[in-house]
Amino acid sequence: MVRQKDGVWWMAAIELPKEPQAGEETTKGKRRSTAKPVVCLPKGLVDAGEPPLDAALREVLEETGIVASLVTKLADIKYVYVRKWGDCERVFKIVSFYLLRYESGRIDNVTDEMRVEVACARWLPLGEAPKLLAYRGEKQVARQALEYLQRHEL
Question: Which pTM was predicted?
């Protein structure tokens, strides 16, 4: 999800809640993680019967507080991960990434319930996003978004 302000393109990103590491210091009985924050793009599961674009728009709203509209589909990223919970099963996942344009809302205006998934939402300069995002596929998607915006008038 992007917006242009003062001639600069910005991309909405989220910071995941920190998971305390073994042996980390505590504050008032709670562990405080010193690990580097994980910055990534909003994403989530497609509900039964929900079109992927609708899921993307919903997830962006839930995780960032921003209402967006479609510009174009950028990519499908495919990968495998091992669940860290329950059965520790290997999961094959396909994530569809769309270039979305800001319509309204205020970044990080999310519900308290969403704070389990999102520590904060913030704007990143799109040109710097590939260096700031944590995941290789998302870095590539940020590059694709910038290339698209350089070639097309929005």
Answer: 0.85
